[in-house]
Each structure stands twice: as structure tokens, then as C-alpha cells.
Amino acid sequence: MKEALLIMLAYLIGSIPTALIISKHFFGIDIRDYGSGNMGATNAFRVLGPKFGTIVMVMDILKGMLAVGLFYLLPFYLHDELQRTNFMMGLGLAAVMGHIFPLFANFKGGKGVATLLGMLIAVQPVVAVCCVGVFVVVLYLTRYVSLSSILGAIMLPVSVLWIWNEKELTYRIFALLVASLVIITHQKNIGRLLRGMESRVPILKHRDKRKSRKHTEN
């Protein structure tokens, strides 16, 4: 019973519409009416700019971490590692579902990548570093946040199943479930990537300008 209540609380934490709150409070708009139409950090970067996009991203990551940290409220899970990990993953996934289908925003949220990252940092920080590393490299090379998110998510099962060869079945299922969830929520982005119509985030503009000048000079 207590576990169910905490799972519900984790969902409510995930449902806090960070991007919507910031867009309405500071800009007087509903961010879902602009850009890609969701409340994710990527759309916040595009619509609200780097400063507020970063704030949204950090807050969404913290939602995942805070939700996972609810396990501390039940002392039993402090002494059983396997049960604790399973419960932490359940709390984190509840927060992610809250972000994707937020109760406080008519169930129209974001893709859940930042909240997933917060969850992963809290559950398995070493694996999280690997996923973030892939994300950063792909983002630097392509400036496609969607592609970076997808490949970063795929790195999770690669790390769990092959690099660390984790034997625990729960970990394996969790890794595959998370990667699948990210791919499913990015179906439209995948379509745009294949058609060459996906938009890039406005970072590394100086690098692109230098390349453009060199290409023109040549």
C-alpha cells in the first residue's frame, strides 16, 4: 500500500509541467502551441531560448532524481539492494510517465528524456555517464537532439547487456524498456530525420559559420 502511494506521488512529481509553467510565467504563452508542440527541454530551447531551456532541462532531470529518491521514505528498501533497485526503477518510470502524460497539463507533455536521465543518474550513475557521453558526442556532430536522445537511449541496453553484462533480469528488462520508450516517443522525429526535415538546435553556430566561410572561399 505504501509502495503504491509513493508510485502515485512519483507520477505527480513527473507531472509538474516545468516548461509550461515557465513559458506562461515569463513569456505569457503555452509552449505547446509553438515549435514541436511538446513540453520537453528541446522545444524549450527552441522556443524559450538557451537560458530558460537549460532551466527546464535541469528541472526535468531533478524530477526524475527526486521521484527515485522517494524510496528513502520506506526504511525496508535501505537494506535490500535488489528490492531497492526494483522499487527505484518503478518510481523513476512513474515520474517519466507523469512527464509524458502529465495530470496537471491535460496529459500532453514531453518525450521524457530529461526525466529519464534524472532517473538513470539516481539508479545507475555510471551507466548514465555513458549515455550522456553518447548524447553529447552525437549532438556536437549533428546538432540533432532527437538523434542524440535516441542513440543515448540505445547506449543504455548496450551498456547493461554487453559492456557490463549485467546478469540481473530486472536490469535487462529495464534497459530495453527505456530504450524502446525513447524510440516510441520519437517516432515523428525519426520520420523527419529520414526525410531530412528535422530541425537542429541553435548551438555551435560559430562552428557552422566557419565551415560555411571555408566552403565559400574554396
How many β-strand stretches? 0
Number of helices: 11
Shape: globular
pLDDT averaged residue by residue: 87
Note down, in words, how this protein is organized.
This protein is mainly α and 218 residues long. The protein has one domain. The chain contains 11 helices and no strands. Helix 4 packs across helix 6 (113-123), helix 5 runs antiparallel to helix 6 and helix 7 (125-142) packs antiparallel against helix 8 (145-163). The longest helix is centred in the middle third of the chain and has 20 residues, at 81-100. The chain is globular.
How would you summarize the topology of this molecule?
Elements: H1 2-14, H2 18-27, H3 41-48, H4 50-68, H5 81-100, H6 113-123, H7 125-142, H8 145-163, H9 169-185, H10 187-195, H11 205-217
Helix pairs in contact: 1-4, 1-5, 3-4, 4-5, 4-6, 5-6, 6-7, 7-8, 8-9
Summarize the structure.
By secondary structure, this protein is mainly α. The chain contains 11 helices and no strands.
Descriptors:
single chain, 218 residues
